Amino acid sequence: MMMLNKQKVLLAVGILGVIGASPLYAKDFSYTYVEGGFADVDIDNEDADYIYGGGSLALDKNIFIRGSLGNLDVNKNLEFDTVSIGVGHPMRMSERSDLVLALDYSFAESDSKNPAFDNVDVDTLTGSAMTRTWLTNNIEGNLMGGLAYQDADYGDSDTGAVLGAGIRVYVVPQFSVGANISRSFIGDLDTDEIGVNARLQF
């Protein structure tokens, strides 16, 4: 019985060793794609749902532009239509990793049955750095950090940090699904987001 258990342990260690030693092929990340997603958002303990569609276009290997349209549904009396545009610069850090520097501007306008919150504009400018790393041949991991400046009609302008992490699984080379979490600290407003998305790249 003891010998059998030792054989099982050695077999498991051997399998893990083979998996860990399997080669990671160097592949370029694509910056031309279309995607859509959904996120559960918590804004200072106020639940909201966010749905969006967007994409990115690589102008060459050193620069891309991206944008999205979305809707943030805070409650039955308040929602925001959102537009985001940005530009990014990817840099190859290793055979498996890119570092992406980006600047994004987003605009949100409220639609509310309460006149005090109707047609409220929120402008946000975010500078960020994100890593894209091949964890395996079809799984990508991301880490992101940034600084955001926000100007809203309902209060003073504020600056704060934005942090995030994500993982992306490539079902086939052109199609992938991803999941991400993020947290922002802008002024007195803390926002948590957990999202999923699907992407078709070219």
Summarize the structure.
With 202 residues, the protein is mostly beta strands. It has one helix spanning 2-21; strands spanning 33-43, 46-60, 63-75, 78-92, 97-112, 121-134, 139-152, 158-172, 175-186, 189-201.
Ordered list of secondary-structure elements with their pairings:
Elements: H1 2-21, E1 33-43, E2 46-60, E3 63-75, E4 78-92, E5 97-112, E6 121-134, E7 139-152, E8 158-172, E9 175-186, E10 189-201
Antiparallel strand pairs: 1-2, 1-10, 2-3, 3-4, 4-5, 5-6, 6-7, 7-8, 8-9, 9-10
InterPro entries: Beta-barrel_OMP, OMP/PagP_B-barrel
Keywords: Signal
Domain Outer membrane protein beta-barrel: 15-202
Structural summary, described in words:
The protein is mostly beta strands and 202 residues long. It has one domain (31-201): Beta Barrel (Lipocalin), CATH 2.40.128.130. 10% of the residues lie in helices and 68% in strands. The protein has 1 helix and 10 strands. Strand 8 and strand 9 form a beta hairpin. The longest helix is centred in the first third of the chain and has 20 residues, at 2-21. The radius of gyration is 21 Å and the shape is elongated. It starts with a helix and ends with a strand.
In the residues, how many domains can be counted? 1
CATH superfamily label: Autotransporter beta-domain
- CATH fold annotation: Lipocalin
Radius of gyration: 21 Å
Give the ordered list of helices and strands.
HEEEEEEEEEE
| Helix run count | 1
Structural class: mainly beta
Inertia-based shape = elongated
Strand content: over 45%
As laid out across the biggest beta sheet, the strand order is 1-2-3-4-5-6-7-8-9-10
**What is the CATH C level class, in words?**
Mainly Beta
* Unreliable stretches covering 5 or more consecutive residues: 8-22
InterPro entries: Beta-barrel_OMP, OMP/PagP_B-barrel
Keywords: Signal
Pfam family, one: OMP_b-brl
Organism: Zhongshania guokunii
